[in-house]
Each structure stands twice: as structure tokens, then as C-alpha cells.
Amino acid sequence: MVILNGQTLTFSDVRNVLFENEKVTYSDESMKKVNASRKAVEKIVDEGKVVYGITTGFGKFSDVYIGKDDVEALQLNLIRSHACGIGEPFPEVVSRAMVLLRANALLKGFSGVRPVVIERLLDLVNAHIHPVIPQQGSLGASGDLAPLSHLALVLIGEGEVFYQGEKVDAIDALTKEGIFPISLTAKEGLALINGTQAMTAMGIVAYLEAEKLAFQSEVIASMTMEGLQGIIDAFDEEIHLARGYKEQIDVARRIRTYLADSQLTTKQGEVRVQDAYSLRCIPQVHGATWQALNYVKEKLEIEMNAATDNPLIFDDGKKVLSGGNFHGQPIAFAMDFLAIAMAELANISERRIERLVNPQLSDLPPFLSPEPGLQSGAMIMQYAAASLVSENKTLAHPASVDSIPSSANQEDHVSMGTIGSRHAYQVIQNARRVLSIEAICAMQATEYRGTDKMSQTTSQFFHKGREIASSITKDRVFSKDIEEISKWLQASSHRFDPSETKIHS
């Protein structure tokens, strides 16, 4: 059971809720804070004070006073009018993460909602009822207004949800689970949608996939080293200590460990004096990606426990302050950085693929073909990889450098962080397919060299991979192999322990 309190949610907790179906609840102490801030909201309404979002309209309408009799209608109108999401829905796991993160943010006790709002959010998580939330339509400031409005619709029994493998009306799923819709009262609609949970949820899911893929890329690269008889000296610890980047040092150490017992790698001068950069600079390039991943993880860990509502209620209502914590700029930068870093993993992987298939760059069979000329072998797999890395270069263009004013220029600078998170996720999917192509080519190359000479780690990968993609003995529809290897890398808990030569799956 994961206990939320708005302060201590970790990546491990989120992973367990998203992928291990662990249930969630709240701490009693955090709910006391929620009750205190709710009393402050009720007092503001009773006394008729002018406070943004509680007794006023929103955005450019912040100067319009809303009387006590209309505060509930105000919140309902807000949710319905702001549910302007467009396009395909977020993956179901991202929707699940959004609900979890919104509940955690409200449990900080700065938002003024009733406990029942948080209880309903947790009911959705525990019953596996996940709002259908269109991916497009958020500017990433004033929060993820459009996406989170689709989430909030479910609490009032409107909208659609993913439930038991199907897309159904929210009210049907709620009824089956015995969950009653709620009516939103003062501030609650605003508190539900004024936040960065769409970009953060997408970012967390993207990061978890990126982290796993980064580990996997190192074993795939190690297998390519064997297929190309790469020079192991370039991974000597002294080289990397001399530069000083921890992540670079760690990548070199892991690859030395993976290849420690290999008979297919070479020493300087045995076959060639130096390898091309795509082999020799694996620690430097992959290490730089790890630096970016560490930065992204740090920002997401802060944001998943952040108060991103507006206004925020402090000191039991003595202070109700309007600010801009809903602005997604920190996550927007992190998502752009994530896309760039993962695009580079794909870039260098594609260059290794080229070395595996190009007969001018190695002594392997041309395009790893069983009958060069009659059969094309892996020729077009390299084309496909090149296409994906080119697409990534477009997707990696920073979303965060753009801004378009909204709400009659009241909201005149926005982050576009949700666009950045979606692009980063797509880059990761493309990168995984590129690395899947490298894995297929590297397996073929090591088979040519002699699988009995592979290291223990790469041999384990080879034999697992061969269960999915058989040896290239004749031309076939390789698209299926690429997709199946990619699904294997994504769906399994498959990653490589940095301190061991063992594959965990």
C-alpha cells in the first residue's frame, strides 16, 4: 500500500502503483491539512470576500465577482467549458499517473478541496478506472487545463474512462464499482485542473521507459562491440577517470563488466589501432545521456510532490495567495532535454548499425545477407533506422522555446511543456525501435563471429533475443522482427543490473 501525503512520493512508489497495481491511500496527517484549508475556503465564501477562483471568474474574468449562490455552478461550468482536449487519448498508464499525482498534490493541504474529492481520486486509482484524456490542447501554463478537465469530468460522472480493457461512459464504470459521483463546490473545479499533472505524468512514464532503454542500450552496444571486434581498451577506467564525469565512468565500467569474459573483443593494434567514434565514444555519449536523465529525474521528483494550484491557502486561511506555480517551465525544459538525450542514443545506435551492415566498414557479410546480391539481408533495416533518427531530430526541437498568449493576454507566457512531454515519449518509442534494429544486426554479426565466444551477459541477451527474432537465413518481412524485439524491450521488466553480469527479466 502506497500512503500519500503530498510530500514523499517517489519513483519507486509511482512505478509500483502504475505497473504493479499497488493500492493507494492517504495519511491522516495530510488529511488534517486538507480539512483546515477547506474550512478557510468555506469562510471566504460565507463572508463574501473577493478571492480569485473562489468568488471570482477565471483568467481574464478574474475581476468578475461571483456570489455565494453561484459558486457551485461556477466550478461545474469551468470543468465543462475547459474540457477541450483534442486528438488521441494519452496511454492508459499516463491517465492513471495523472489521477495519482493530482491526489498527491491536493493532499499537501494548500488547495481548499473537501476530503471527498481526494477520496474519489483514490477510488479511481484503486478500481482501475482511468479517465480518457485527449493528448492535445494544453499550453502548459495555467496548468494542464484541458487534459485535467477531462479527468475532473469523471468525478462528476461525465466523460469517458478506460475500464476493464474497454472505453466506456464514466457513469457506467462508477456504478459498477459502487462509486458515487460528486458535485464540485467552491474552488474544487479550479483545484483539480490548475496543475502540471498531464506533462508530469507523461514525463514520469517517459522517464521510466527511457531509463530502462538506456540500460538496455549498453548491452546491445556491447554485443555490437563483439560483432565488430571492437577495441576494449577504450573503456579502460583510467581514460574515464581522467575526464571525471561520473556517468561516463559508470557506462565504461558496466560495459567492461558485460564484456569481461568475451573472446570477441580486441586490444589496440590486434585488428586496428582505433575504433570509430560510435564504438570508441560509447561511454562519453551514453554517459551524457545519463547526465540528462539524472537531471530529468530530479525535476520530476520535485514536481510530483509540488503544489501547482492557484491560489494557494496558507496559515489556515490567513493567507490566500495568487501566484504561478501552475507554470510548467521547469518540466518543459526537462522534457525537451529528455527528447534530445534519447534522440542521441538513437543517433549513435544508427551509426553502429551502419558499421554492422556496410561491407566497406567491416569484414562481415555485406548487409549481413546470407546470399549477398540475391538476398538483401539487413540493408533496409538501416534505412528504417535512419528514418527514425531523422524523425527524432524534428521531434527534439524544443517545445519550451515557444509561447502563445491566451485568455486575452492575461496569460501571456506559457510553457508548452505538455507538447514537450509528448514529443519526448515519441522520441523514446523511436529510439527503442532503432536499438531493436541494432540488436537484430548485432545478433547476426556475433552469430557470424561465433556465439560460443560471446560474454556471459551478451550470450544471455542473444539467446533471449533469438527466441523472438530468428537468424537471418533468408530474406523475410523484418518489420515483424523489429516490432517484436521492441515490444520485448518495452513490456518486460527487462533491464541490466549495473553491478552484475546478470540479465533481470
Number of helices: 18
End-to-end span in angstroms?
A: 24 Å
Shape category: elongated
β-sheet strand percentage: 5-15%
Strand order of the largest sheet: 4-6-7
The H/E string reads EHEHHEHHEEHEEHHHHHHHEEHHHHHEE
Question: What would CATH call the architecture of the largest domain?
Answer: Up-down Bundle
The number of E-state strands comes to 11
- How can the largest sheet be summarized? 3 strands, antiparallel
Helix amount, in percent?
40-55%
Number of self-contained structural domains: 2
Highest CATH level, the class of the largest domain: Mainly Alpha
CATH topology of the largest domain: Fumarase C, Chain A, domain 2
CATH homology-level superfamily of the largest domain: Fumarase/aspartase (Central domain)
Mean pLDDT: 94
The Rg value, from CA coordinates, equals 26 Å
Structural class by helix and strand composition: mainly alpha
Q: Which consecutive residue ranges, at least 5 long each, have pLDDT under 50?
A: 497-505
Mind explaining what this structure looks like?
The protein is mainly α and 505 residues long. The chain is elongated and about 85 Å long. Helix 11 (246-258) packs across helix 13 (282-303). Strands 4-6-7 form a three-stranded antiparallel sheet. Strands 1-2 form a two-stranded parallel sheet. Strands 3-5 form a two-stranded antiparallel sheet. The chain has helices at 11-19, 28-47, 71-82, 92-106, 115-126, 145-155, 170-176, 188-193, 197-227, 237-243, 246-258, 277-280, 282-303, 329-357, 379-395, 417-449, 456-466, 478-491, and strands at 2-4, 24-26, 86-89, 130-131, 134-136, 160-163, 166-169, 312-314, 319-321, 495-496, 503-504. Strand 6 (160-163) and strand 7 (166-169) form a beta hairpin. The chain has two domains: 2-194, Fumarase/aspartase (N-terminal domain) (Fumarase C, Chain B, domain 1, Orthogonal Bundle), CATH 1.10.275.10; 204-307 and 320-401 and 414-496, Up-down Bundle (Fumarase C, Chain A, domain 2), CATH 1.20.200.10.
